[in-house]
Write the structure tokens for this entry.
Amino acid sequence: MAELLEIERLRVRFRAVNPFSAWLAGIRDPMISAVADVSLSIPEGGAFGLVGESGSGKTTLGRAVMGLVPAESGEIRLRGAPFPRRGGPALKAWRHQIAMTFQDPTGSLSPRLTVRALIGEPFRIHGLANRDLHAEARRLIALVGLSEDFLDRYPHELSGGQARRVGIARALALDPRLLIADEPTAGLDVSVQGEVLNLLARLRQELGIALLLITHNLAAVRLAAERLGVMYMGRLVETGPTAGVFRNPAHPYTAALLAAIPIADPTRHRERAIAGEVPSLLNRPAGCEFHTRCQYVQARCRSEAPDSREVARDRCARCHFPLNPRDSGPIAIGSS
Amino acid sequence: MALLEVDGLSVDFAGSQRPIHALRDISFSIERGRIVGLVGESGSGKSTLSLAILRLLAPSARIAAGTIRFDGTDLLALSSEAMRGLRGERIAMVFQDPMSTLNPVLSVGAQMVDVQFRHTDLSRAGKRGRAIALLSRVGIPDPERRIDDYPHQFSGGMRQRISIAMALSGRPDLLIADEPTTALDVTLEAQILDLLRDLRRDFAGAILLVSHHLGVVAEICDEVVVLYAGELVEQAPVGELFANPRHPYTRALIECDPGRLPEDSPSFPTIPGRLPDLSAPRTECVFAARCPLAFERCRVEAPAMIDIAPGHRASCHLLGG
């Protein structure tokens, strides 16, 4: 299948502290890399799940693909065409093909517009207001499984699940090829989460749209995306087919993350959670950035940063001592 | 005698035309030393129930019927002063969002000393020492140094640990934890659950854990109370509830948990339909409109609570009775 989206060594940096405070606090580099050397690709119609803890850079990566935050280095290509260097019409054309739904479903909808006006906005912004906007609104609201009565409601009259659907309808307005869904299940009841995920699956099937699913809902991503990327401190530490990663995580961080999912079965017991918290991006640990929390840490991990490399067919991990897929402990697989 | 006994509790909120029945005829009890999970989706009345126990309901709410007895005392008959004496001291609460529980302009130490204002036997230094011990107990590294830090200097997981430490500072008999891990990442959630499990060992009281997440409940609770649309539909020991759920709503809720689905599931299960109108008088089973098993009787008569096994009861016509 042809690649739709290709990201190569993408880096996004933010200024985290002002230069004077940085100087006072003795921080040499006031910039943080929210996304650091991330490479991934999504084929036409594919679904890629991006998981990781808060602050791991998932959302920033999605926003960089939309052109909402500038990339410092690296490349983003859509169907082979590079991200436009200048804004204006070229960026508008880029955003015609990629759409995003945002974390806060109600907050991302203007409270003063009706659902009908909200769905019409993308057409106006892209100079397509000459279309029959009423017909488009009816088409889109039906596509996301809401009745036409919703067109005259305001965002505050919508439940969380309904607001998500309206956000998705807006995102689909211009018939994009890629939908970036940022935490589409956050804050929803478990039965409503299923409805939204089923809707995304149906849209992929009906419209052939590709999906970048950004989420911390690990149980959901297992079934909603074929490929999975695990982020830690702005880096992709593991990628591979979702089922394979869940069955045999190669990176100790992935293993710890998966082991932390509460099991809805009182007869089975989770191992104790990994200790510690994510270190500050202003003060990245030397060597492998996960070594401060890794239960398999060795001397080499403290001094030498591992590169991402293929640990099995179609599986990449950024670890010196990836876990053996058929064993609980780590094995060294030749040094790079 | 149970530590907490809720009997026939009904809570109404003032609606635009008719009152909204947020809780109807809720009865359950909590024994000392137990962790009881209170499960339900948005609008089920979980938070209303925990606020009713603390008598912190909004002014628009009215307790229409029922009693709440805590350690033998009728909480609803207590004077405001007496209730204030219990709150934070014998019944404490941990909220979902630790940032809004903590005062951003006071250091953690100052707040933790302040909440011990009733302990007139302790000097300020004594209270500070106790605060340090509590912070250490909930796993804050280097508490002597960090006690003078402000809430924003702690991460989300550490802030939730601090709010648990503050809740424990009054030596409560009942700790109500309202979605204590919902705002946290999965690794931090696991750490907080480990902490709650450890705490119960040296804590003689009981914990009421409010959660919409069945995985969380399965991990640490002894018993589970399931609420739907303001009614208690099932109560059971945790193992029994997951192995043998008897109310169709409980079953649907368990089936919806994405963690239980096999890898090749074609779609996610859902519960079609929506919550019933909470202001309407109840002439049918509260779950009838969404129940896949509903039959004639379910639409004309509300089912009674039926005992299934020791500690296990549910309200469903399919159980006979």
